[in-house]
């Protein structure tokens, strides 16, 4: 039986150019630590990997620091369109929602799709209607808005394709908000050796309404089977084209790669060769974890049962 544990991410990206106070950095590290600890507590109480990733991603959605749920980025029309996916590795059941604008916690809607729908992916109004019928909380569209994300949209629209050259003066987060690839996710292995993965996102700033990225697509931004659980963050279109999350599982199953080899190959070779950037978190049935990224940083954390959470933002080597 592998070691039970959980890993989370809150997006990958470039280091902010503005100098940050320790306090700003601490806000992120504390949020990550608390969320890892919540996931560990669920696993320690005998909870399933599916429950642990659901709660970790719900908490990440509730935090305005991360681009999912509250604090989601804006589309080019100043609206929000949220996507989420969850997958139970033991049964290989999956549930997902895409392009929703009023469901407070998209990961909970994805979980309801997994449990109570014959379908895997529901989008837009139909997904919201389903969430309402399932008793989930719906909110006004501006519930997700924050001033920081609105300023980010203004900068993106002012600079159009030169988004990466913005002046980072308004920056207040360790990773440059305009060059950060949003999305949150969690992967876990419970004490039965069962795996699960979940991913949730507001998508990309200034995106075209209707655009769906990799996050709600099983196999692209989220995947779990009995061997491995994976949650991705990055340039969604490249993660879709490479089926990045499934590719980790396939390399392990068909080519005999270890978890670390498979994750490194996907992020540093395959994604990078198509000019994609981002990262992923993964855990295998032995409890091995990998958290690779090809950007300068990724908000991330992990913890095994009975051990203190480990959290980090920047590259450590
Ligand atoms: N992968 C997500 C998307 O493309 C967001 C991100 O991680 O940037 O929607």
From TrEMBL:
Pfam families recorded: Asparaginase_2 (PF01112)
Q: Which domain of life is it from?
A: Bacteria
Q: Which GO terms describe its biological process?
A: proteolysis
Catalytic positions are 183 (nucleophile)
> One MF term from GO for this chain?
hydrolase activity, acting on carbon-nitrogen (but not peptide) bonds, in linear amides
Q: Which InterPro entries match?
A: Ntn_hydrolases_N, Peptidase_T2
Annotated CDD domains: Asparaginase_2
Matches recorded under Gene3D superfamilies = (Glycosyl)asparaginase
Positions annotated to bind substrate: 211-214, 233-236
Q: Where is this site: Cleavage?
A: 182-183
> What keywords are assigned to this protein?
Autocatalytic cleavage, Hydrolase, Protease
Signal peptide region:
none
Q: Which PANTHER family match?
A: L-ASPARAGINASE (PTHR10188), N(4)-(BETA-N-ACETYLGLUCOSAMINYL)-L-ASPARAGINASE (PTHR10188:SF6)
The name this protein carries in UniProt is Isoaspartyl peptidase
Source organism of this protein record: Mixta intestinalis
Tell me what gene encodes this. iaaA
